[in-house]
Specification:
The complex is a heterodimer.
Chain A: H1 5-8, E1 11-17, E2 20-25, E3 33-36, H2 42-52, E4 57-59, H3 70-88, H4 90-99, H5 102-109
Chain B: E1 2-9, H1 23-32, E2 37-43, H2 48-57, E3 61-70, E4 73-78, H3 84-97, H4 107-113, E5 121-127, H5 134-139, E6 146-149, H6 152-160, E7 166-168, E8 173-174, E9 187-189, H7 196-202, E10 209-210, E11 219-221, E12 228-230, E13 233-238, H8 244-254, E14 258-261, H9 270-281, H10 283-300, H11 305-324, H12 331-334, H13 349-363, H14 368-374, H15 377-417, H16 429-449, E15 453-460, E16 463-471, H17 475-482, H18 489-492, H19 498-506, E17 520-527, H20 536-550, E18 556-560, H21 568-583, E19 588-591, H22 595-598, E20 605-614, E21 617-625, E22 631-633, E23 639-641, H23 642-651, H24 654-669
Parallel strand pairs in B: 1-2, 1-8, 2-3, 5-6, 6-7, 13-19, 13-20, 14-18, 18-19
Antiparallel strand pairs in B: 1-9, 3-4, 4-5, 9-10, 11-12, 15-16, 16-17, 20-21, 22-23
Helix pairs in contact in B: 9-20, 10-16, 13-15, 20-21
The chains are: A alpha+beta, B alpha/beta.
């Protein structure tokens, strides 16, 4: 499924549409497109994780009734929950990441 | 002038190495070294019977004594010979108190056993280990005027310094049959006739205690065959194979803690030796430069990227499989808890740090005024209370989560046993991302580190030592760095990929705490006064100066033919002055054939070794004297002409000297 003009204005990475769950497949150098969540592989998921802490990361909330497909329900719920947990820790990650090896970087950069 | 040695061991006690006492050797010692008075001072005991035997056998004064473990140090307690039975019974009390090497008696006990300490001569280990502690010395100060030291350097320092005890040097020796060399640690006292009272009064007065018989404290006995040397600068001259190095070796064996620079020792592998020397001495520079990197490497060693990838893959596959097996769902796998993921515990380390920091602010007294100018104690206390309340709430929540995670995982295990359906593996995205971030930063740091950089520099005796951090340029360098016979080839192929390189280093037999040393090397360079890298010869010069400089940590400096490795100009300008300075602190003995060293250095004392073949046998003689003396003398009263000796040894004889002077130098000058 191609990305709509509307969707280009914000960065949504997980969405529910027409009883199905989709994730945004990030294609380097090409247009991104929506793929059903049961087709997700580890590289796709890793690409999403790398985006999850960016400020404009968005995803549709999980609602069981919006997803008729049971397999989609399971995958979407699981991934959505994991991203939610990760986003909750965004500030901690920022703090931790910016202080990571700070002494060494400052010392050897001078 | 009398020569005394009041510290002699004749019984092998628990505090000694095992030895069998030889009275004959003790007698030979006192005769050969011309000693006038000795004291028998065994560890924590006095053997009256043996003492009587020794006294009868020797023609000199022998005093009864004991070396007592007093507190943490040792004390010599020496008595007159008039109350031997009383002394012996007191020493038995000491012996009964000290049954092993760790035990000692207190000052109170000492005073209890020897109520009248004034009667004795008390000599503590002073500039000598194990030293009597200063508070013990303070308590006993009215009974103590003398302290035993180990070296000429300490003797000379203490004799000049006000407030120090009168220093004495004794042999502290054990005499046994196979003894090859006698100790030369004795003290001279200005006394006509030996008596206990006379001895006590001399040892009270710094003006009556000396290192040598006739030359005060400017000379000392250097070997047991009568060679005396200046406590300043001595030069040993002599033809080849006349016993110069032999004499130097003998001096070396007679004293402890000597700096001995042997012939040619400085010119082999100058550059390597230099780099080794510097890298050992400057190890702290490298340690301190790489300290932060070491921490990074230790932390990154715990990151297992491969395992993370495997776990991640397992998670994705299990999730997809679990979803696709939806049709096979049974009562067990339908349970919501079957595919429930774990609660994530909140990391409270930052909050903990915050609480600690606020506590610092509250408790700091040094900067209290400044802190309170901006933050009131009341507010700080409110802040810390709120943070602590928050901490305890979150900690409680974490405990609940931990408890629930355990519960969920137990239920999941039970459910999994009963169903054929795949379960979803657990994984924390946060930990995964953080590990990747760590690897990214680690690579960034290694990249910065590999930029060649001067990390430290310092001036040393006209040279500049520069420490540079550099990239390794081959597996061979890594192997050399490790000092092991292991191959770094495979690892080095990935030297530019820090994390992979580290993973491969882990496969090599290296200590885990050593990995950080294999990313960059710290190389030392020596620049001469013109700022360019030093030459081989300059490395040797630097090494010699460094060795000589190091001599001040020792009690004496011996140098064997420095001219064999250096040119005259360097010896005259660089070495002579340094040696002269050092000879003001410790005795220096140089063996030489070279006029720059031998004559230009202006020694305090000259020793000339001579070998003559008499009736087909080698005969060695040692003559000595001041440079200004017309003649040098030996201990048999024989003499040699000083001027001729110096010209023979340093200038290849008078004729050659005159010829060089008149035919060569003057012609060149004109």
């Amino acid at each position: 499924m191609l990305i709509t003009k509307e969707e280009l204005n914000y960065m949504k990475y997980l969405k529910i549409n027409d009883n199905k769950g989709y994730y945004l497949k990030l294609n380097e150098g090409e247009n991104n497109n929506w793929i059903e969540v049961d087709k997700i592989n580890k590289d796709d998921l890793m690409n999403l994780i790398n985006k999850a802490l960016e400020p404009d990361f968005e995803m549709d909330e999980y609602k069981e009734e919006d997803l008729g497909n049971k397999a989609h329900q399971i995958i979407y719920r699981n991934i959505h929950e994991k991203f939610l947990n990760l986003i909750k820790e965004k500030d901690r990650f920022k703090d931790e990441s910016s202080s990571l090896y700070r002494d060494a970087i400052e010392k050897y950069s001078n | 002038m009398k020569k005394i040695d009041l510290h002699i061991h004749t019984v092998s006690t628990i505090s000694d190495k095992s030895f069998e006492f030889s009275l004959a050797k003790l007698k030979e010692y006192t005769e050969k070294l011309e000693i006038d008075c000795i004291a028998i001072t065994n560890h924590n005991l006095f053997d009256l019977e043996q003492f009587n035997q020794i006294s009868e056998a020797l023609d000199i004064t022998v005093l009864p004594g004991i070396e007592i473990n007093l507190g943490k140090g040792h004390l010599l307690l020496i008595s007159d010979s008039d109350e031997l039975n009383d002394f012996s019974s007191k020493c038995r009390q000491v012996q009964s108190q000290i049954t092993n090497n760790e035990e000692c008696i207190s000052v109170e006990k000492l005073k209890e056993i020897f109520p009248n300490l004034n009667k004795y001569l008390l000599i503590p280990h002073y500039g000598k280990k194990p030293t009597i502690e200063s508070d013990v010395l303070n308590i006993l100060q009215e009974f103590i005027s003398t302290g035993e030291v180990t070296s000429i350097k300490k003797f000379k320092t203490y004799i000049k310094e006000d407030g120090k005890l009168v220093p004495v040097i004794f042999s502290d020796f054990r005499f046994y049959d196979k003894l090859e060399m006698f100790p030369i640690r004795q003290t001279y006292i200005d006394l006509d006739e030996i008596s206990f009272k006379g001895l006590k009064s001399c040892l009270f007065d710094k003006k009556k205690v000396f290192l040598s018989k006739e030359e005060g404290n400017n000379f000392f006995q250097a070997t047991d065959d009568g060679l005396k040397l200046s406590t300043g600068l001595n030069v040993i001259l002599g033809e080849r194979s006349s016993g110069k190095t032999y004499t130097l070796n003998k001096i070396n064996k007679s004293f402890d803690n000597i700096k001995y620079i042997k012939q040619f020792s400085l010119v082999q592998n100058d550059e390597d030796k230099f780099k080794n020397l510097i890298s050992i001495r400057e190890d702290s520079v490298s340690e301190s430069y790489l300290k932060e990197f070491k921490y990074v490497v230790e932390d990154i060693t715990k990151v297992d990227k491969k395992q993370n990838e495997l776990d991640f893959e397992k998670y994705v596959n299990s999730l997809l499989k679990f979803a696709s097996e939806n049709e096979q769902a049974d009562a067990f796998s339908k349970a919501v808890l079957f595919s429930e993921s774990n609660f994530i515990e909140k990391d409270l380390s930052i909050l903990k740090e915050l609480i600690k920091s606020v506590r610092y602010l509250i408790e700091n007294s040094e900067y209290k005024e400044i802190i309170n100018k901006h933050l009131s104690i009341k507010n700080l206390k409110m802040l810390i209370i709120e943070l602590m309340n928050n901490y305890s709430k979150l900690e409680e929540l974490n405990l609940k989560k931990r408890w629930l995670n355990d519960l969920i995982s137990n239920i999941q295990n039970e459910l999994r046993i009963r169903t054929a359906r795949t379960s979803v593996e657990n994984i924390e995205f946060y930990d995964l991302l953080l590990d990747y971030e760590k690897i990214k930063k680690f690579s960034q740091i290694v990249k910065i580190l590999k930029n060649e950089k001067e990390i430290h520099s310092k001036e040393m005796r006209g040279f500049k030592i520069v420490a540079n951090s550099k990239k390794y340029t081959g597996a061979g360098q890594l192997k050399k760095r490790s000092g092991k016979t292991i191959s770094f080839k495979e690892a080095y192929d990935f030297y530019d990929e820090p994390y992979t390189y580290l993973t491969l280093l882990k496969n090599i037999a290296l200590g885990e705490t050593e990995y950080y040393k294999y990313f960059v090397k710290i190389e030392y360079e020596i620049l001469n006064k013109y700022g360019v890298p030093a030459s081989g010869g300059e490395y040797s010069e630097f090494n010699l100066l460094d060795e000589i400089d190091d001599a001040l940590k020792h009690e004496m400096l011996l140098i064997d033919e420095p001219e064999s490795s250096f040119d005259n100009l360097f010896l005259k300008n660089g070495v002579n002055e340094l040696i002269k300075d050092i000879s003001k602190e410790i005795p220096v003995v140089i063996v030489t054939h070279n006029n720059t060293v031998g004559a230009s250095i202006q020694p305090d004392y000259i020793v000339y070794t001579q070998k003559k073949i008499v009736d087909g046998k080698s005969e060695y003689k040692i003559f000595s004297g001041y440079p200004s003396d017309k003649q040098l003398k030996n201990n048999l009263g024989e003499t040699v002409d000083n001027y001729t000796t110096i010209l023979n040894c340093l200038e290849a004889g008078k004729d050659a000297y005159n010829e060089r002077r008149t035919k060569l130098y003057e012609i060149l000058e004109n």
